[in-house]
Each structure stands twice: as structure tokens, then as C-alpha cells.
């Protein structure tokens, strides 16, 4: 039996219009609103990429006590994967959402691409960016290799829309962390990144060179992301990815399958930039943030 319809009161009309208006604005919510619900917005992010080791060679390994301490005090992505093999394409995918046609570790022509990438997006959005590269001969040097330095781990040199002057030597890494750009990549050399040396060597390098930053990040709304380019080709390309900082829930884990595109999307969403390449359809890392 249907009930007779009651006329709307003035209050009901107002509430109805307010609800409709809220629904309209919710439907039109832009990137900032979506970002606020999904990821944190740190004052500073540092990304460090290590080399050629599988998840189980690092997480739970006695050879990597420092990385495991970051996992315990931060977040561990238990289903994190590289995109491909060998190394160099993964760096381009992490930085620009595409390998940009790079499928090997061979030297590329500097500035060969003008495609959108994390640095160009940040610059366009009025944000700050830099890289700090161990054993880079000099600021902005585009040399392919020099001693333990290898440009194949530094994809920013492939883009004409990223100033080469934004590539600093690691000696130029600021001791005053408030002077860091909003987003930076720190690239260890071929020994420090575990490519030519052991997991223990890389783990100690991380503690000695970025441990103080990690501790500072815990109380200064900042973030450290530690990840790997690819595995050892024996574990389905499953890699370690750990996030540590003030807005990361200590001891949290995520079993969601993520790869380099998801990490790129996460940083893009933190700063409200556009999305490069395959990051446009990738989900950000969620469920680990305190706010």
C-alpha cells in the first residue's frame, strides 16, 4: 500500500538542493580532491633505486638490516614488481611511464625525447626537482660512463625538457634537508647500488648516506622511497619497495600488486601534476598513509 506523498517543507527543499549540489560537486571533484583522499602530500620526497635483486634477497635478509629497519618503521609493498628487463628501460618507466623506445642498456643520445616525465611535470606545476648522482663527474655532465658512474641509471638525461643543470653530483646533496627540492632521485653508483657489489654494501651505503635524512623525514613531513629496478631474473621480477616517513603508517604492508608505473603515479598525485605515459592508468599506492 503506497503512502500519500507529503509536500516538501522549506527546510526539506534546502536540504534537497544542498544534497544535489554536493552530489554535483562530488562528481566534479578534481585531482586535488582525489589526491587528498588517496595519498599524503610530503614536503620532500627522495627516491633511491637499487639494482638487480629479488624481493627475498633483501626483505628478511640479514645482509640488509637497514632496509629491513625502514620496512619495520614504515611500509612494505609485498607485491612490487619491475616492469621488464634489463635495467635501463625500468628507469625510464619509473621516471616517465614508458621506456621511450629504450629496450637495452646501451647509451642513448642525451635529450632524445621531449615526452612528459616526472621532472617536466613538476616543473610545469611550479614544483621543484633535482637528481643527486654518485660519481657523476660534474653537475649536468651527460657522459655515458665514468668509473663506477653509469648514465643508464639516470633517465632524466634522455629528456630535452629536463634541464641538465638539475642533475647534481652527490657531493652537492644538501646537509640542510629543508633546502631539498620537493622531489629528488638519489642515484648510487654501480657499487653502492648493489649492481657490482653486495646487498650488504648497498644497505650500508643507504644507512650512511641517507639514514640521517630518513630519521629527519619522520618528523618533518617527508618521505623516503627505496626500490629496485628489476630482480635477478629468477623471481618473476618481484622487487623490494619500502616507504618511510612521517605520513607512512609504521609496520604497514600492502599486498596489492604494484610496479614502477604505480610509484610514478603516487608521486604525481602527491603534487597534483599531470600523468606521464602508463602512469595515467595506474593506481597510486594507497592504504599505508596515516593521513
Using brief descriptors, characterize the structure shown:
alpha/beta; Alkaline Phosphatase, subunit A; 3-stranded mixed sheet; 30% helix; disordered N terminus
Q: How would you describe this structure to a colleague?
A:
The protein is α/β, with parallel strands linked by helices. It has one domain: Alkaline Phosphatase, subunit A (3-Layer(aba) Sandwich). 30% of the residues lie in helices and 16% in strands. It is built from 8 helices and 13 strands. It has helices at residues 10-27, 31-38, 55-58, 65-73, 87-96, 118-124, 199-217, 260-271; strands at residues 44-50, 75-77, 80-81, 129-133, 145-146, 149-150, 167-169, 183-187, 222-228, 238-239, 242-245, 252-254, 258-259. The chain has an 8-stranded mixed sheet. Strands 10-3-13 form a 3-stranded mixed sheet. Helix 4 (65-73) runs parallel beside helix 7.
Helices and strands, with pairings:
Layout: H1 10-27, H2 31-38, E1 44-50, H3 55-58, H4 65-73, E2 75-77, E3 80-81, H5 87-96, H6 118-124, E4 129-133, E5 145-146, E6 149-150, E7 167-169, E8 183-187, H7 199-217, E9 222-228, E10 238-239, E11 242-245, E12 252-254, E13 258-259, H8 260-271
Parallel strand pairs: 1-8, 1-9, 2-12, 3-13, 4-7, 4-8
Antiparallel strand pairs: 2-11, 3-10, 5-6, 9-11
Amino acid at each position: 500500500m503506497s503512502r500519500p506523498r507529503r509536500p516538501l517543507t522549506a527546510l526539506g527543499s534546502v536540504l534537497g538542493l544542498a544534497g544535489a549540489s554536493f552530489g554535483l560537486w562530488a562528481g566534479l571533484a578534481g585531482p586535488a580532491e582525489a589526491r587528498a583522499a588517496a595519498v599524503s602530500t610530503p614536503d620532500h620526497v627522495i627516491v633511491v633505486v637499487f639494482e638487480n635483486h629479488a624481493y627475498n634477497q633483501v626483505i628478511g635478509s640479514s645482509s640488509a638490516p637497514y632496509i629491513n629497519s625502514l620496512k619495520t618503521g614504515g611500509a612494505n609493498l609485498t607485491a612490487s614488481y619491475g616492469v621488464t628487463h634489463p635495467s635501463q628501460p625500468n628507469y625510464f618507466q619509473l621516471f616517465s611511464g614508458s621506456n621511450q623506445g629504450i629496450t637495452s642498456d646501451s647509451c642513448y643520445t642525451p635529450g632524445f625525447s621531449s615526452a612528459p616525465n616526472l621532472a617536466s611535470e613538476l616543473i610545469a606545476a611550479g614544483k621543484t626537482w633535482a637528481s643527486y648522482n654518485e660519481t657523476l663527474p660534474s653537475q649536468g655532465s651527460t657522459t655515458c660512463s665514468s668509473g663506477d658512474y653509469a648514465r643508464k641509471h639516470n633517465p632524466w638525461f634522455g629528456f630535452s625538457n629536463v634541464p641538465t643543470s638539475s642533475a647534481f653530483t652527490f657531493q652537492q646533496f644538501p646537509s640542510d634537508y629543508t633546502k631539498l627540492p620537493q622531489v629528488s632521485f638519489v642515484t648510487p653508483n654501480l657499487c653502492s647500488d648493489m649492481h657490482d657489489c653486495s646487498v650488504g654494501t648497498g644497505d650500508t651505503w643507504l644507512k650512511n648516506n641517507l639514514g640521517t635524512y630518513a630519521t629527519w623525514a619522520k618528523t618533518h613531513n617527508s618521505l623516503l622511497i627505496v626500490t629496485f629496478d628489476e630482480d635477478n631474473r629468477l623471481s618473476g621480477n618481484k622487487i623490494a619497495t619500502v616507504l618511510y616517513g612521517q605520513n607512512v603508517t609504521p609496520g604497514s604492508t600492502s599486498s596489492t600488486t604494484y610496479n614502477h608505473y604505480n610509484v610514478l603515479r603516487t608521486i604525481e598525485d602527491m603534487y597534483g601534476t599531470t600523468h606521464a605515459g602508463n602512469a595515467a592508468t595506474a593506481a597510486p599506492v594507497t592504504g599505508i598513509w596515516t593521513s
